[in-house]
Write the structure tokens for this entry.
Amino acid sequence: MDTNSEFWAVYAAGGADTEDACRLYDGLEAASLSELIGTWKGREFPTGHPLDGVLSGLNWYGKAFHDAENVDPLLFELPDGEIAAMDPVPLMDKRKLLKATGGKARMRMMEHRGVLSAVMVYDNLPIHDHFRKVNEHVLLGMMDWKGDANPFFFILEKVE
């Protein structure tokens, strides 16, 4: 079974444990910065991480990559249907969501798990989101939060 098919089969089965998610991630191709530009719809990739269900419970929409210096790392769908960028610091501090002004992250190329690939670096949090390509329109993200023993996984699908 090819990596793309295996990925979707694991996702359809309800996700994976962290070890299997890491193995899937490691088998995917690196993503470039230019491939990230645009708006992406997100969904969680369950692994049993404590954050599983948190973002979806808050109506997480995804991420928007404008350029290397300006990324909206957390887009949420508001009750009126508006898609809005939110400041990640209050969310991670378990406070209420606050609308963000300007990008709250940037993109760089970084080696992680032995592969040079695109990464989103939060401006004010010790978090890096590393990306690998499932295919041209789908990314698997691995959130590396300093001090967290296990990564949090998520899927991004390009909004056309």
Notes: The chain is about 20% helix and 40% strand. Residues 3-158 form a domain with the Lipocalin fold (CATH 2.40.128.580). Residues 102 and 151 are 27 Å apart (CA to CA).
